[in-house]
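Quick one: structure tokens for this chain, please?
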Amino acid sequence: MFLKRRYNKRLKFIQYHNMSKINKKELSAEQVQELLHTLKVRFEKNMDRHKSIEWAKVEERLVTRPEKLWVLDEMEVTGGEPDVVDYDKKTGEYIFYDCSAESPKGRRSICYDLEGLESRKEHQPENNAVDMAATMGVELLTEEHYRFLQQLGKFDTKTSSWIVTPPEIRKLGGALFGDRRYDHVFVYHNGAQSYYAARAFRGLLKV
């Protein structure tokens, strides 16, 4: 019975993931305008995150990449509050991170990855960070990314966020997460099968 449940869960994810590749992900004109307004207001309110970047240039790049707008909307509706935090001069890409004060509310109570989720014989959560990030179209933050984000403000003072776990740690059953406590940034570990009401993940998107 347990093996059948594992198979069905994996099959359901594969089917959803494949359909997401087939179906063109694009927002309506109204949704685009609403999202651009939200992003602009946040951008202008937090200029310390991107002092040398102009919104007009960011918007110009966004409107020609509808698939990226769809991903940003996914970040937004799951509570990530995406914002521009960097610019890659080599590629010309603007880099968005989830900048919500606490770990995104719409992505909490999830294991680190599918292997961790399937290792639970009971009380399995509905999703996992690695697959959810892939379906949304974002990259999970690494420890380096997470520490960079924490230089831009104080994040996860009451919550925590899964981050990319090195293979040598993951193969032993562990997974990494980060948070800020006592005005210091900490990176620590749990079993990849664990999940908490106060832990989600943060993603990044290159546009």
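The beta strands are 82-88, 93-98, 139-140, 160-162, 174-181, 184-191, 199-201, 203-206.
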